[in-house]
Design brief:
Chains A, B: Keywords: Cytoplasm, Nucleus, Protein transport, Transport. Chains A, B: InterPro entries: NTF2, NTF2-like_dom_sf, NTF2_dom, Nuclear_transport_factor_2_euk. Chains A, B: Has a role in nuclear-cytoplasmic transport of proteins and mRNAs. Chains A, B: It is found in: Cytoplasm; Nucleus. The structure is a homodimer of 123-residue chains. Chain A has 2 helices and 6 strands; from the N terminus they run αββαββββ. The first copy, chain A, is an alpha+beta fold and 123 residues long. A 6-stranded mixed beta sheet of chain A has the order 2-1-6-5-4-3, covered by helices on one side. In chain A, strand 4 (78-87) and strand 5 (95-105) form a beta hairpin. The first copy, chain A, is globular and about 45 Å long. Chain A starts with a helix and ends with a strand. The interface between A and B is medium-sized, with 27 and 27 residues.
């Protein structure tokens, strides 16, 4: 599979889901998945979903600036690196962020998020 | 090994080497290593070293803001996510950057950089 196509497809799917149906993000994680969100470490699909759905904003819009992707090694996974900005309702300033995902293959031929690290880029 | 300790040690070593002895960075990569530098894809230790040593500045100083680390899966590797800024001589403004590394174990019990993705964070 073309890594650039795969990663763009994943990134579009991830942030569209985040912005329109955040509860459904749980389907992209599994029990062993890890999220580090602004330095806070969370493990497991349910805990990650709880964290993402308890962020102090209900509505948001992610705008993507760059997507980079590489195969992550022998296991058939991919690392995906994203930069962009986050728009919150009533906020004049965009919040710049960087995020990396390590996508691991499922036995069904799809992928899930094994590693997820998110950081705001303070100006 | 404590992942936070491992990643901080690696990050200090990487950027100190970059800032003081850039040619020695080649030792941190192997033939299968990949670098995506501002969207440009480079593979292999020699080509990566050539790229890093042909950047249009001789002197620089990396200042690290955050380091996050997670185990990358069954293979004993680690993903490391860094944010910081880059100081160039004669430049008033700091260049903010984000970078991710996927460190893979060597048979000797050390690590090398398998994946490396670097992006400047334009304000």
């Amino acid at each position: 599979m073309d890594p650039d196509q795969l990663s763009k497809h994943f990134v579009e799917h991830y942030y569209t889901t985040f912005d329109t149906n955040r509860l459904a993000l749980i389907n992209l994680y599994q029990e062993g998945s890890m999220l580090t969100f602004e330095g806070e470490k969370i493990q497991g699909a349910q805990s990650i979903s709880n964290k993402l759905n308890s962020l102090p904003f209900q509505q948001c819009k992610h705008n993507i600036s760059t997507v980079d992707c590489q195969p992550s090694g022998l296991s058939g996974g991919w690392v995906v690196f994203v930069s962009g900005n986050l728009q919150l309702p009533g906020e004049e300033h965009l919040l710049k962020f960087s995020q990396m995902f390590h996508l691991a293959p499922t036995p069904q031929g799809s992928f899930y998020v094994f590693n997820d690290i998110f950081r705001l880029n303070y100006a």
